[in-house]
Amino acid sequence: MGRTSDAREKILTAAQSLIELRGYSALGVAEICKAAGVPKGSFYYFFASKEALALAVIDEHWAAQERDWIRVLRGDPEPLLRLRQLFEETENIQRSGQQSCGTVSGCMFGNLTLELSNQTEAIRARLQEVFDAQVTMVESVVAEARGRGEITAADDREAARSVVAQLEGQVLFAKLYNSPRRLDALWANCLALLGARVPQDAAEAPASSAKDAAEGVPAGA
Amino acid sequence: MGRTSDAREKILTAAQSLIELRGYSALGVAEICKAAGVPKGSFYYFFASKEALALAVIDEHWAAQERDWIRVLRGDPEPLLRLRQLFEETENIQRSGQQSCGTVSGCMFGNLTLELSNQTEAIRARLQEVFDAQVTMVESVVAEARGRGEITAADDREAARSVVAQLEGQVLFAKLYNSPRRLDALWANCLALLGARVPQDAAEAPASSAKDAAEGVPAGA
Fold this sequence. Notes:
The structure is a homodimer of 221-residue chains.
Chain A: H1 2-22, H2 29-36, H3 40-46, H4 50-73, H5 79-101, H6 108-116, H7 121-147, H8 156-176, H9 186-194, H10 210-214
């Protein structure tokens, strides 16, 4: 089965690149197979439909991103600094994408949400699971910060939702203006949304936004 | 030219509905003409291409939304309350859309940004103009609030960008969860992002979120 599972990987990789570049609706199975270098018969051996492929692409992309989020959000620094690291890594990923394909491709989950969530219930449900998981991870960092008396937001989960919403909104702008620097605002925005003070260690951390953060700027800047 | 300009309007109206339901890439000119009840020849009399139609749909939709934003953001109440009214009207529009077609369709400009902004430069440029105009309108309300000593955010334009980004992010969630109530969080989020106190008149205004706002909740709730 070595060659067969190789074909599945090739299809998934090609589909992910094409979806990031051009969305889902504009793609055909024939084009995906051509980009993957596999015969069309292989496609239907592995995937019942284009929708089944989209679900597999979401799962694969989330499996990788979830590992990154767990590494960062359960890491060593104090809780709010982990959120800052998450924003910096997100900006770096968008910058790398821009360098390799010329444009900021944005968040695949956000892209597919706006393109597809009101068209296929299976994809909507899967994307809800992804965003629920993101919010839950941020929520537990928020709860930890609350335990240290660092935030004043009323409700951990609502605050976490607002942080993830701000992330999606700024990634949308990063894509629209083809500028990863739009994400520089995320750290100050997050502190404002959480009603947080700037962590004492922030000035020591090697962050591009450390200066603004140290000045306690509520929004953007 | 009576009939002819009627055909153009029919095409625009049909295209706007179809784009809101299913995005741009999935649509064909034949389908748009069928929904509009006009012959395909009429389409190419008015529009050089599907992209030209998309630009006209954006212009038409923005012309209407800009009138609404101007009415609200240059209205009578004190500046921060105008922003609250903008969020409430946005939620009402999303709720009406949900009632008429079963699902929250989200923000057409956000939808098209994530679907198309890195595929066609003409559409990217037009969508940038729309969001620049939105940010400028919010910025002038923020400046007015600053003049009254009501906010502490460092920079009016950056703060306005963050408010519009939060709006787009929460509208994304409203679409994903098919729930206009996701937009309830916008007012408290906006106050947090601006570093604003709750306006004194807030409790008197007939707003669904007045209670939360009066409690000065930093994020969501």
